[in-house]
Amino acid sequence: MSAPQVGVSRVPGKPVRRDGDGSIAIDLWLRREGVFESDIALRLTPGEAEVLHAQLCYALDDETATLITPATSRPDCRKGVLKTRSR
After folding, report:
1. Is there a contact between 80 and 57 (Cβ–Cβ < 8 Å)?
2. Around Cβ 15, how many Cβ atoms within 10 Å?
3. What is the largest distance, in Å, between two alpha-carbon atoms of the chain?
4. Which residues, at least 6 apart from 6, have a Cβ–Cβ distance to it below 8 Å?
5. Which burial class, exposed, middle or buried, applies to 24 when counting CB atoms under 10 A from its CB (0-12, 13-18, 19+)?
6. Contact by Cβ (8 Å): 17, 46
């Protein structure tokens, strides 16, 4: 028996939010075998969210970031990131 195919994606149109307990919540859709199963939320502590933020900035440090988002319209945390990594 093969393992079920499970997929997770962000809920379109729902912003990342801070919950009452201070955690950061990212709403996700869970699909099993391509069929919607439920909504779930990824909850992160502020520290975990900050690490994820830094890792995303690092991962976005490539040419596609320049093509998709001009440097002038990038958030402050992304300005100059393309210059920080040696190739």
Report:
1. no
2. 9
3. 52
4. 30, 31, 32
5. buried
6. no
Q: Are 11 and 27 in contact (CB under 8 A)?
A: yes
Give residues with Cβ within 8 angstroms of 29, minimum separation 6: 8, 9, 10, 11, 36, 38, 39, 40
Answering whether pTM is above 0.85, one says no
Amino acid letter, 37:
E
* Structure tokens, 73: 């319209």
Instruction: Give one word for 33, left, alpha or beta, with left for phi > 0 and alpha for psi -120 to 50.
Output: left
Query: If you search the block for the tokens 């869970």, which residue do you land on?
Result: 30
pLDDT digits over 31-80, tens only?
Answer: 999 888 999 999 999 999 999 988 888 777 765 556 565 666 666 766 66
